[in-house]
């Protein structure tokens, strides 16, 4: 296992493009870390700097307390799994797994033992004599993971390894990769644009924004229930969080759609944002339809009109309008309001957020969210 430390790490390309800004993080031994963000946010560049495939322009990167900026990839003890399987098509699964060990001059008996052990972990024992063209996408990806696993390194790097798989295969491989991580215990840094992968697989998540800026680092629970800013709030969660613009007047959230909420129960110091423009936010799955058109004691009542519905089986997505703002709500399929109908829904205080519109930062709150 390995411990990694980043101190103000930056990447600037010769053309002046600043791909990563002041990346700071400590990764513990055996942690599974996901880097997520939209295209161009610098997550793959960060991974390549860890691997030694990109030079670090400024800052310091340590592996187990040793400065690693100038270390070669081999000296870093790293194995990397790329988006493409990159298997040798003319070699069998056995030969693909054994190839790196053969180059290192390891004895054939040791190679046999390592290949068989790795194949057993990955469920590839029955496919060792097959060629890549005779494997499914998921099996090819397991072989690619196996080539990294067989080296017994302390750091695994994975760059969107599941992006070429279909939806069903991705679900299967997510659990398999997590099981492999538990059994091997190597420190793993995993890059993905899919926030579902990040939420289900990682110990902690690094959310990055276009231009290479880190927005928040935390556990999946922390990022889901306590997003620090509007970007994280809108990025984590599917469907994304709903945002209603308004202003604070006399301790209340008011806007042009006729909404008027007392936000003192969900804001630590409402006087600090008096008169400021803010964003009232809530997740689609946090709401409930108002029984009798009324809200409970610790709830906010909002009126909307149905624009479109999507039945997903266990839930229905309701696309509705609150004034001139589009929102998405998740409701019980048996309680789905009719198309075009006006209806009311409730947002519990514990599920409501307030963000400063100018800074885009969360307004401090003492609410315990769950």
> Major sheet: order of its strands?
6-7-8-3-9-10
Average pLDDT confidence is 92
Number of strands: 20
Radius of gyration: 25 Å
- Separation of the first and last Cα atoms: 33 Å
Main sheet, how many strands, which sense, barrel? 6 strands, mixed
**Share of helical residues:** 10-25%
Return the structural class. Answer: alpha+beta
The helix/strand series, from N terminus to C terminus, equals EEEHEEEHHHEHEHEEHHEEEEEEEEEE
> Percent of residues in beta strands?
25-35%
Overall 3D form: elongated
The number of distinct helices, counting runs of at least 4 residues, comes to 8
Give unreliable regions as ranges.
none
Structural account:
The protein has 370 residues and is of the alpha+beta class. It is 23% helix and 33% strand. The chain contains eight helices and 20 strands. A six-stranded mixed sheet has the order 6-7-8-3-9-10, with helices on both faces. Strand 17 and strand 18 form a beta hairpin. Helix 2 packs parallel to helix 4. It is elongated, with a radius of gyration of 25 Å. The two termini are 33 Å apart. 36% of the residues are buried.
